[in-house]
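Worked example 3. Consider a protein that binds DQA.
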Amino acid sequence: MKIIIINGPNLNLLGKREPAVYGNITFEAFFSKIREKYADLELEYFQSNIEGELIDKIQEVGYVYDGIILNAAAYTHTSVGIGDAIKAIQVPVIEVHISNVYSREKFRHQSYIAPNAKGIIAGFGMNSYDLAIQSFLTDTI
Ligand code: DQA
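Given these inputs, the predicted complex is written out as structure tokens:
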């Protein structure tokens, strides 16, 4: 099973960015742990701060992978383009957030991803990504 985690803007700063909200671990450290945990999976990771690069990656994997775990970060709340890309592709997308966006500012309650996502996982810290992987695995049983 081929799954990709796609992270949007500022998530390259995990570990040093607002640790009270996003925790202390870098994504690279987390990703190497999760890769070990799911050694049987083909797990990939892509991060960009650039909206068009995220759309290019969604289009590239969106007809060939088995699942996309997308934390579009701030673009979640603003990007019609990413929303349209998700609508266009065939691979199921799980929208993920580290923080509970619904307990934060009102502008974070809006998502252009959610209407076309298979599901949404938010507020479990980095474990949100793990739960998204598990949702793909339990699907196949
Ligand atoms: C985030 C929540 C977004 O509102 C924010 O802009 C982010 C991260 C999260 O993972 O909690 O950058 O997607």
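Take a moment to read the result before moving on. The first strand starts at residue 2 and ends at 7. The first helix runs from residue 19 to 22.
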